[in-house]
Amino acid sequence: MKNLPGRRVGVPLLTLGLLVAATASARADAIADFYKGNTVHVLIGVNVGGGYDLHARLVARHIGKHIPGNPAVVPQNIVGSGGIKMSNQLYNVVPKDGSYFGMMPNTLVALQAVKAKGIRYDTNKLHWMGTINTDALTMAVWHTSGIKNMDDARNKEIVIAASSRGAITYTFPRMMNEYLGTKFKIVLGYHGTSQMSLAMERGEAQGHVNSWTSWQAKKPRWLKEGKIRIIAQSRPRSKDLPNVPLVEEMARNDDDRQVIELIVSGVALGKPLAITPATPAARVKALRTAFDATMKDPAFIREATAAKVDVAPVRGVALQNLVRKVLATPPHLVDKARKIIGK
Questions:
Q1: N or C, which terminus of the chain has less Cβ within 10 Å?
Q2: Average pLDDT of every residue of the chain
Q3: C-alpha 275, offset from chain centre
Q4: If one looks up domain 35-134+269-341 in CATH, what number appears?
Q5: Where do the structural domains in the chain lie, given as residue ranges?
Q6: Contact of 213 with 309, CB cutoff 8 Å
């Protein structure tokens, strides 16, 4: 087509580009204006001192400089019902404006799948932010327990410390009893893995469940001195534990294996962070971007390395897809899993 006299070709496109850039800049300024001088709260669904608390506070110390406006970031532990209390508050009580996100025990998605009592949240509607890493969940026993391997655990009863019904510290050993033939006597009431470990030292209990990286970070001396033995783990298999059997592979049949996989499905979520539902999309994007930037921050990586925390993050969108998959588990498998992880 011939140009008409006086027509300025390309000017409308240039104008449109400037408008788009101006709009994007205005949105960025609006996000920075919201967070500047504001406080971002990081809710933690477990007690102080455990692996979840370590990860949440590590992120909290560094993410503020990557959020537009550089808000103060304050962690807060809200303990109760294996993390359900915190998750209910995150979903129903706190402002849904991007000023709150929380670190949820990864069991809470499976608990929703089986419609456990007390749940007043929908993890499909949370905005998942990311996790620092994923690692094997392990069953550890004290060196004087008389248990050296799974065969021993099938033939001798020992006390396993746990927090509450619905928490992975309870469901994992109960699942092992039901599907793998162990004889664990599960004692509830311990607030966090630090108390459970102290119970082992005192002789009150002879074992408890913890992630492998948490053992490495919190009890390196125990590992070095052989104070604990790892007798079982879940996927993803740790490269440090090549000879420790996977619970999924010890299942007696395919149905049992699928139920076990549902029960331990949260392990693939790591120690996940989630943003309140109904948070404006631009602020969700800003927080996810800030998390991704934190995972590459040299100061964050140095502190994580010193704390023996591997930095191999899974981003928020990937976690969102994992949650959707767990909640789509076939009903006949959910019914079987409910007997173990339901409350």
A1: N
A2: 91
A3: 13
A4: 3.40.190.150
A5: 35-134+269-341, 137-266
A6: yes
